[in-house]
């Protein structure tokens, strides 16, 4: 993770996180990425499932983004520079003034040239990683994808070389006069909860929830 | 919310949501937006606080995005077309095959020409909306912003005319053969929880958590 001119944190340098393990931990924790591509003359930002292969074929490791072969953004982004941003909201910061209201969060911005994954074996590998990112251990319990399924699925690979991370945690930082005025300040933690699995209606009677799915609950 | 060529859902039409009240409900529920701008020759996607004024000065209502006057993306996006995407993850869908794994979510994509809010009164109004979006009722309990604070804060306004929404809910839709094979299918609900407020260390002793902050907890 070497910040370049494009990913170097210009604002809020004190919120920049330099440690690659923090970046990978965030990418492991978060479930949705926002992919930005330029379509025609304007940006389009779309939510996508994703996964990381820290030892992937691209320099710095590979971030895989999932899509449909029929999606226009996918074709527009082949070979182009894209931006993948992953954000987790951790809290709301109630400062003593409008100005000092803030959010606690972790956010990673990855900028890189997108490569469409053409090779079926790499595509299957990427899809397995994406499934296991959602539900760790699930991929090994599923049949292999058919050629037709692989052909209908598109995967974009983005190198993890150009990545920056920002994070904020804790309470507000206020003007001394506002603190002295006795306005309450603090923060409200926000977290993601994963509830108990809901079986599909068409499961055979008596089929147990598999351990990988059961372990996903918070 | 009139879909144009740019926001019309091309993929997954069955997941398009046409009702403006659903769009506004998502924008009310979600706390973080991802703003996409073109900086130089590539897209940049950044997480931001935001708020909606359905009766705002822009056609279709106004989506306000918060930033810093010193941020480069802000200057790059003045007058340019930007994309603001708001996504809430509602669940993980465990299909019986890799191909039919999916996510439950609600996502809105707003594309429009960004206007930098110059007028101090509109800027204060937008900041009040952003604070109240985080903690409803909080803005009225705070002192007015100073001229210096308003000058240091930048707000971008994006019209809500070009907006599209997609949503997915429920369990997997699988191949009959995979269902018959007895693989467990279902989904795992995901939701956001807001925990009890954490007072700042420098609050005066005995200062109660105000009702607006207390009500924010789930």
UniProtKB/TrEMBL annotation, chains A, B:
Region (Disordered): 196-218
A Pfam family it matches: Pyridox_ox_2
Source superkingdom: Bacteria
InterPro entries according to UniProt: Pyridox_Oxase-rel, Split_barrel_FMN-bd
Listed PANTHER family: 5-NITROIMIDAZOLE ANTIBIOTICS RESISTANCE PROTEIN, NIMA-FAMILY-RELATED PROTEIN-RELATED, FLAVIN-NUCLEOTIDE-BINDING PROTEIN
Protein name: Pyridoxamine 5'-phosphate oxidase family protein
Species whose genome carries this gene: Nocardioides daeguensis
Organism lineage: Bacteria, Bacillati, Actinomycetota, Actinomycetes, Propionibacteriales
């Amino acid at each position: 993770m070497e910040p370049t001119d494009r990913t170097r944190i210009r604002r809020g340098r004190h919120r920049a996180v330099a440690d690659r393990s923090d970046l990978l931990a965030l990418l492991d924790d978060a479930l949705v990425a926002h992919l930005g591509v330029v379509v025609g003359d304007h940006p389009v930002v779309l939510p996508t499932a994703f996964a990381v292969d820290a030892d992937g074929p691209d320099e710095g490791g590979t971030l895989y983004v999932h899509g449909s072969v029929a999606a226009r953004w996918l074709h527009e982004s082949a070979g182009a520079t894209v931006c993948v941003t992953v954000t987790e909201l951790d809290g709301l910061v109630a400062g003593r003034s409008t100005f000092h209201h803030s959010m606690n969060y972790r956010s990673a911005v990855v900028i890189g040239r997108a490569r469409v994954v053409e090779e079926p074996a790499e595509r299957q590998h990427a899809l397995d990683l994406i499934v296991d990112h959602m539900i760790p251990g699930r991929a090994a319990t599923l049949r292999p994808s058919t050629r037709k399924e692989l052909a209908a699925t598109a995967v974009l690979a983005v190198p993890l070389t150009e990545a920056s991370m920002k994070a904020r945690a804790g309470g507000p930082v206020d003007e001394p006069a506002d603190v002295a005025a006795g306005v309450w300040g603090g923060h409200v933690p926000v977290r993601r909860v994963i509830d108990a699995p809901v079986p599909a209606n068409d499961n055979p009677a008596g089929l147990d929830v598999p351990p990988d799915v059961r372990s996903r609950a918070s």
